[in-house]
Amino acid sequence: MKHLIHTLEGRLAPLPVAVAVELPSGQRVGRSPTDVMLRFRSLAPLAALAAGHIGTLGAAVVEGQVEFEGRVRDIMRAASALLQADPVRGTSSWWSQIMARTRSMALHTLARDAEQIEFHYDLSDDFYALWLDPRRVYSCAYYRALDMNLAQAQEAKLDHICRKLQLRPGERFLDIGAGWGGLLLWAAEHYGVQAQGITLSRNQHAYVTQLIAARGLQDRVRIDLCDYRQLQPEAPFDKIASVGMFEHVGQAQLPAYAAAVQQLLRPGGLALIHGITAGGVDNVEVGAGMGEFISRYIFPGGELVHVSRVLQALAQGGLEMVDTENLRPHYARTLWAWSDALEAQLPEAQRILAEQTDDERGARALRAYRLYLAGCAMGFERGWIALYQMLVARPDGQVGNGPLPGVQSDYPFNREYMYRKGTACPTSSNPAPPPT
């Protein structure tokens, strides 16, 4: 026991915030006064603390073996300082890559993908509504101006996507993984497109269906409960967006995903692929147990690969990358906004989850999401994970001799149309109302 206490004291002393540990016996180790208190109900998780295996320590918190007091921002400052190795710079062996691909193939059948989406997105609409913006946009915001709040930054993101795609009235637009309908409705109401969304979440499908009816958009907008691999439209789409979705595809299915996007897109059309990527080129998942934590408690079946591998799959699928933008810092700020909103409403979150799941599952979910949101914010800040928007085109083969020879798509010669000086992002003074 003396050796254990000595080890803990050595690990806690240099941390950037004052952390104390309460052992099962009641004995306390660490600094006082404290910013963060960790109460251990068993000795087993202490090994994870000593080794800097913060994902395993987080799992012990979710399972009730460890309780914490203090701000989650301070907890994340301490967690990052506990790491003993860079969680993304390790090189994976050829064998681990083969095993990861084999696992990926097994994880991403039609049936398992539907189950995995249900596990996350159908937890509770009311819970997500507590900490998302009024439009329930569950993906990286775009802080076009630094003084934007979350709701404004999410509207700026929706418009940023529509501008990149150059949406025009009457175009057929597909949103793969439409979530709670934010982009789908923004594109229809601000750009006049004929919009179709698909999702595997029954809760989201029901919510967006009611929202479409409440807005009187049934003639221009639809949402289908459908896997992207099963979609068979009457004709290809002019423009496609896939936002926060390819993380669920899996590395083994990325070629099929790219091929599906290519087939769903008309020649010359544009697609915007927006998603989280790995910070390291070779790591299979974020280390120190963090990847395992997210797979177990938040996104079962979720897989991250480096942006270079996503672009490779898109190119092999017949899609030309015409613009790529890194929004990693924007996602760090987005996640902190979500985390702060959840932390400000913990009693209400606990009540909702207890009523809509059961007491034990609700308590575990709340503990998991508190660590997940703050932990991912930290991960994006430190570059362990990244967020890219990749604009791709399906070349139409028409080289021509016009003013833009060789373009072969709707993409112009430069990016001026995305960031044109003096053009303001449309904003709405009335947030999206919930369905009645």
Automatic annotation (TrEMBL):
One record GO biological process: lipid biosynthetic process
- Keyword check for Heme, yes or no: no
Where does the record place the catalytic residues? C376
Keyword Transferase: yes or no? Answer: yes
Output the Pfam families linked to this UniProt entry: CMAS
Could you list this entry's UniProt keywords, alphabetically sorted. Answer: Lipid metabolism, Methyltransferase, S-adenosyl-L-methionine, Transferase
| Source domain of life | Bacteria
The record's listing under InterPro entries reads: CFA/CMAS, CMAS, SAM-dependent_MTases_sf
Q: Which GO terms describe its molecular function?
A: methyltransferase activity
Q: Which SUPFAM superfamilies match?
A: S-adenosyl-L-methionine-dependent methyltransferases
Family, per entry: Belongs to the CFA/CMAS family.
Q: What is this protein identified as?
A: Class I SAM-dependent methyltransferase
Source taxonomy: Bacteria, Pseudomonadati, Pseudomonadota, Betaproteobacteria, Burkholderiales
